[in-house]
Design a protein that fits this description.
The protein is globular and about 55 Å long. It has nine helices and no strands.
């Protein structure tokens, strides 16, 4: 609890962890509904789903090379904005997909973006932290990631049980990805 005041003292870091929360909720709130699209609406086989997973994994691997170069040139914060915006494809494609082919851009974007997240989250935390307190900032960041990971999928199911239809949950996801991207463009983030 002694670390919480760090959020009040470091506005760029506060915006950053709020963007991580928005990004995480954007990905996790609809997580329970993606299998329904794959199986119930598109009637994909395990083989079809495994091909999509293979595409995602290969683009994840290639994504490390892409983001490493971009981050060196653009910095971690600007890279996050691109990552957050690219993930809009994931719920958007699932929302409107009439076939598995429509999901291909979603799985490519997800693979590339996940590689970027792996690099950017650590990089931005180090960039925004006070040099002598990097471990404390990293602990706060990981705590936010854990909280959203536990609550996000449950929140999505709860919203659906309260009558929010799956398309509206996908729309909420798109909105949250956009909010996360907007947060890292605010003037207070310019320290990074």
């Amino acid at each position: 609890l002694r670390m919480l005041p760090l959020l009040g003292k470091n506005k760029p870091f506060l915006l950053y962890v709020l963007s991580i929360a928005a990004f995480g909720f954007a990905g996790l709130i609809p997580a329970a509904f993606y299998p329904a699209v794959l199986v119930d609406r598109l009637h994909l086989t395990y083989t079809d789903v495994s091909w999509l997973g293979l595409v995602q994994s290969l683009t994840w691997l290639v994504g490390y090379l892409v983001w490493g170069r971009w981050m060196s040139r653009l910095g971690g914060v600007h890279t996050l904005q691109i990552i957050y915006l690219s993930m809009i494809l994931y719920p958007l494609c699932h929302w409107f997909a009439p076939s598995a082919w429509w999901l291909l851009p979603a799985y490519i974007a997800s693979g590339v973006a996940n590689a970027g997240v792996d690099l950017a989250f650590t990089n931005v935390t180090i960039d925004l932290a006070e040099p002598e307190r990097v471990a404390e900032y990293a602990a706060l960041q990981r705590t936010i990631i854990g909280i959203r990971g536990i609550t996000g999928p449950l929140l999505g199911v709860w919203l659906n049980q309260m009558g929010v239809p799956m398309p509206a949950i996908f729309a909420l996801s798109i909105l949250l990805f956009a909010v996360a991207a907007a947060m890292v463009t605010l003037p207070a983030m310019r320290k990074a």
